Amino acid sequence: MRIALDAMGTDLAPEPEVLGALRALEQLDPDIEIVLVGDESVVREELAKHGEAPKRLTVHNAPDRVTASDAPASVIRRKPASSIVVGLKLHQEGTVDAFVSAGSTGAIMATSLFTLRPLPGVARPAVGTPLPTVSGPCLLIDSGANVDCKPHHLVQFAHLGSVYARDTMGLEKPRVALLNIGEESSKGNDLAQQTFKLLQENRVVRQIKSRVARKVLDAFRKHVPPPKTQPMDEIVELSAREEEVLEKLAKGFLLKDTDTTELVNAIRAVHKGESILSPAVTRLVIEDYLRWGDIRPKETSNGLTPRENEILQLIAEGNTNKQIAEILCISIKTVQAHRGNLMNKLDLHDKSELIKYAIQKKIIEI
Predict the structure, then answer these.
(1) Which member of 11, 199, 304, 351 lies 3.0 to 4.6 Å from 208 by CB, making a disulfide possible if both were Cys?
(2) CB contact set of 14 (below 8 Å; sequence gap of 6+)
(3) Could you tell me if residue 347 is left (phi over 0), alpha (psi between -120 and 50 degrees) or otherwise beta?
(4) What's the pLDDT at 236?
């Protein structure tokens, strides 16, 4: 088996990727090979620090890299030589059997959608996150790839999660549960109720039960006495980028590199009904207030939000509403709403005017 590893995925790349690959080969079976995909000169320079590289470790050149500022949907077009695009194409061609990356999740999902294409019967990809529990491992799916889903999408995720849990987590008969606000079938919104019904009717997915979302906090409550008055929302938002948090509705905002002690203290504070901001986020809030006089969603120089600019580019590149919805993992109605908003903001009346604007502003090239 050959595994392609994105050598340019992390902030400190390629140091942790190279070290991780070397350590992995020491523990993996001798028939497993790793291909480091990234800027060859940079990767080989890092490899040289560890002496002679094992024969099972090779390097495939990909001189470009995806950054946090790159729009996920445009990576495959604008950065075809990036480690993510090159690595996934190696997988598509059959040169490698798997691709692993710690880079932009959005870019990986969007590029995978274009290169590998979804499996038959699966409309959208999903992110699965293994979670530790008292009774063993649990897989949370979807944990961030999709915003707007329909009941049949969640049923498909249930199938994907069942297969993954069986084949990779060693669970012979995985149990599927629907995360909802109550255990009764009548609880939740229309999406939850319809999904629950479909799951019960599905013979492949076994032992369908609904779980109360608030039970996630039970283990924490056992160790922290609840206050006399409990807040309605108990959410701490972790973000890789400070600017993202201003568009979230949470009781606390911390960056992903927050140490364990600060995170635990933040959870305790939020549990008591307090609000928490990390120093970096506090600085951003102050700067934003001084700039605008209040806190508002981030807009670009043309007055459009980042999502509207992303949709503007995709429309100008010739994508239909349905294709845009699939690329960005949102509903067609959401695409139509953004499309209407950006047309009104830019005073455009039809697609031809939109494309002309995109060309003039160099959003797309011809």
Answers:
(1) 199
(2) 7, 8, 36, 38, 39, 42, 43, 46
(3) left
(4) 52
Distance CA 195, CA 185 (A): 10
Query: What is d(CA 322, CA 355) in angstroms, rounded to the nearest whole number?
Result: 18
Which class would CATH give 306-360? Answer: mainly alpha
Most confidently predicted of 11-25, 221-235, 243-257, 335-349: 11-25
Q: Does domain 2-115 have CATH number 1.20.1530.20?
A: no
| Cα–Cα dist 150/170, whole Å | 29
- Rounded-to-integer distance, Cα 338 and Cα 240, Å: 25
Mean pLDDT, residues 260-280 taken together = 74
- Reduced to 3 states (helix: H, G, I; strand: E, B; else coil), residue 272 is coil
Q: What stretch(es) of the chain map to CATH 3.40.718.10? A: 2-115
Nearest to 44 by CA among 9, 18, 76, 78: 18
* Phi, psi torsion values for 299, nearest 5 degrees: -125, 155
Question: What mean pLDDT, rounded, does the chain reach?
Answer: 80
